[in-house]
Design brief:
Helix content: over 70%
Order of helices and strands: HHHHHHHHH
Number of helices: 9
Strand content: under 5%
Number of strands: 0
Largest sheet: none
Structural class: mainly alpha
């Protein structure tokens, strides 16, 4: 029994010595883990709530557009961009507002919305679409060099034919017919035969003297 008590005391002394040396570090590490876990859970809940709230606002936006209520649509879209810009709904709202502004001949406002999508969206397809529409706005404003700069930016293969086609429109507006033809030919070659837009590009080539 005495030997057992002695061994137990030695273990206790070793534990006290270890705790004296490492106790504060262990407590600090535990505090960090607890704080990180709590922070992560808070962030997950916050992100989920933000997405749900943004979805509700986006639904109001689309309903307003369907009802032809431009004022309400602008309010909902602006709210998404200002307060829910980290969600996937904000860039989609900006695209809708850009179209609304473009149809209303508010080209500067449309340009600003599209530039916002390019700068803030995390989705390649949305950035490509915004860049394509921005080039169209710049073409309407006769800012040809700026439009070509957008169209010469890297883009996904899915949008390549549309980029080449619009590039042809810009070059044609500049009076560069041979370069426009080359752009249309590039667009035509990249389109599948069942793509209905292919016929439009073919007509553009025909107007310049045939596809060849």
């Amino acid at each position: 029994m005495a030997t057992y008590d002695l061994d137990e005391q030695e273990r206790l002394d070793e534990l006290k010595a270890w705790w004296k040396r490492w106790g504060n570090l262990v407590l600090t590490a535990l505090a960090i883990i607890v704080a990180a876990t709590a922070g992560w859970r808070w962030w997950q809940n916050h992100t989920t709530n933000q997405s749900l709230e943004a979805a509700a606002v986006y639904e109001k936006l689309t309903q307003s557009l369907s009802a032809g209520d431009a004022k309400a649509a602008l309010q909902s879209g602006s709210l998404l961009i200002d307060q829910y810009q980290k969600t996937a709904y904000a860039p989609r709202a900006a695209l809708l507002l850009a179209k609304l502004n473009f149809d209303s001949k508010e080209l500067k406002s449309a340009q600003s919305q599209l530039e916002w999508v390019i700068a803030n969206s995390k989705e390649t397809a949305l950035r490509d679409l915004a860049r394509l529409r921005l080039a169209g706005v710049l073409l309407d404003e006769k800012q040809y060099d700026a439009a070509l700069k957008q169209l010469e930016s890297p883009r996904s293969d899915a949008f390549a034919p549309r980029f080449d086609d619009l590039k042809g429109d810009v070059l044609l507006a500049q009076g560069k017919q041979s370069e426009a033809r080359a752009a249309y030919q590039a667009a035509f070659a990249k389109m599948q035969e069942d793509n209905p837009y292919r016929n439009i590009v073919e007509l553009k080539l025909d107007s310049l003297g045939g596809a060849q």
